[in-house]
């Protein structure tokens, strides 16, 4: 979970950096530079005004519940996902058609929160890498919103923080990163069905497997729209990153091996979470 508008784009760049740096330095044995100017440029590029405008637009659809209206052009998840699709296409036009925009969907039924057949539709925009395009870094946020009653799909559920903010962050990352070229492929994803059971993520995972994607990282933006915690404390200088923790069922032998190999830095997601982009501190949390 990211709490700074610039972090998503910078973290995505960090996930992409090793392959790009290797390609650039293949002919030179010198170590990497102490400063990467591109990180600073990307870290200052996101616009709070654009992010706020996107959040307000998504709130304006009234409800984005997975089971809500799909035919209306002004209300419901159908209108919301079509707007996101069009926004990705606008971003692509600004980078010379560098994004491949499409819907990824499947019909879900027989579930506690989706009892009847419903097409769960997510929106993705793919920015192909120019050196190792089979290597993928995904940045995502979920489209759908809900009220307290998870089956109430008619009442307004603006979901500004949960999770219009995450989709807005993903859109802004696409605007910023699409102006640059990377060795690996970036996938920007707006997922549906999260509140009903993480179905959009599952559908995308199945699609990625079928397409043969080699997924390096998934940076998921969830509830990133404010810096005030439930305790009332305001902290806009730290970023909270939730990453895979140590296994609760690990054996003593596995624990010994983990400590020998570097403590809790034992998984790709935790290694990514412990990066410190643009001088900002990241706390990895299980």
Task: Draw up the topology in text.
Blueprint lengths: L6 H18 L12 H8 L3 H12 L17 H18 L4 E10 L9 E10 L4 E11 L17 H18 L6 E8 L2 H4 L1 H13 L2 E8 L16 E5 L9 H10 L6 H6 L7 E5 L1
Throw out a few tags for this protein:
Aminopeptidase, alpha/beta, 2 domains, two-stranded parallel sheet, 286 residues, 20% strand, 5-stranded mixed sheet, disordered C terminus
Description:
The protein is α/β, with parallel strands linked by helices and 286 residues long. The chain has two domains: 7-226, Zn peptidases (Aminopeptidase, 3-Layer(aba) Sandwich); 235-286, no CATH class. It has helices at 7-24, 37-44, 48-59, 77-94, 160-177, 194-197, 199-211, 252-261, 268-273, and strands spanning 99-108, 118-127, 132-142, 184-191, 214-221, 238-242, 281-285. The strands form two sheets. It has a five-stranded mixed sheet with strand order 1-2-4-3-5, sandwiched between helices. The chain has a two-stranded parallel ribbon with strand order 6-7. Mean pLDDT is 86; it is low at 18-26 and 276-286.
